[in-house]
Amino acid sequence: xxxxxxxxxxxxxxGGHLACQLGARDDIVLTVAGRSMSxxxxxxxxxxxxxxxxxxxxxxxxRDTLGKLRPFAVIDCSxxxxxxGATPYAFAQSVLNAGAHYLDIADxxxxxxxxxxxxxxxxxxGVCAWSGASTTPALSSAIAADLVAGLEHxxxxxxxxxxxxxxxxxxxxxxxxxxxxxRPFPRRLGGRVETALGWADSTCIAPAVGAARLxxxxxxxxxxxxxxxxxxxxxAATVTARAGLELALFHRALSIARYIVPALRIxxxxxxxxxLLKLSNLFVAFGSEAGGMRVRAQGRVGETRQExxxxxxxx
Length: 315
Description:
Layout: E1 3-8, H1 13-23, E2 28-34, H2 37-47, E3 50-53, H3 59-69, E4 73-76, H4 90-97, E5 101-104, H5 109-113, H6 119-124, E6 129-130, H7 135-148, E7 153-162, H8 171-178, E8 184-189, E9 192-197, E10 203-205, E11 208-209, E12 212-213, E13 217-221, H9 225-234, E14 238-243, H10 248-263, H11 273-281, E15 291-301, E16 304-314
Parallel strand pairs: 1-2, 1-4, 2-3, 4-5, 5-6, 7-14
Antiparallel strand pairs: 7-15, 8-9, 10-13, 11-12, 13-14, 15-16
């Protein structure tokens, strides 16, 4: 029997890719949701999905839509999940209460770490709630688990994400990046919890796979689910999560801004997301499409200290 799937954020960057993949499957009846029918209709027609206008913050409308569609699963690709307000799981709760599975691509540390509070509700309704089905923590945690296997003491897990400048970027991604610049977050360092600032402590990283190698790129501290979850899950004394921009000009601009934000007590740079996205798109001809990722683990087996590195390059 075909399964009904409701996808929010289908006109966004990641949601659009996922919509195309789900739309190509014969065992899924796909409904794509967003706030604008004018943007949804062309996509829905192209991939053979049904469009529906839905605002995830309008819970009455959400409950009505879920009652009519009775989906098997609901996928939230809208974001940014860092800004879901005082009741961040209200939408997910509505999904679980409707008897549907819930899945999102959140990369907000607090949001992903807090999804466990929905476990009793999910069990009560016989469904599942998953958060963080993205590069971090879904992929990064799978790689980290492989790297630390057999280590008796895990000293460090470090994840770094390095997209190419020509990689398409959406407004939600820009808002998530700017929302972290200069903002404090807890970081596990040497077994202690210390305060770090978003986009601080840049270092050069050059992933290499066989003969392929990325030119060294700057990567700075960011607050990801890895930073929130890996210390407890893997017993790591230090957990570091980094991200970087290929164009050093843009990266260093954010590194400078991380001093300005706390100094001027600016709540967030997120309101600048739209104009800075337009600005960054003017430079899309520079750099490359090649992106990379590195997960690095250090630890001990007996008296022997080991470092294990996993690199990925996306041409």
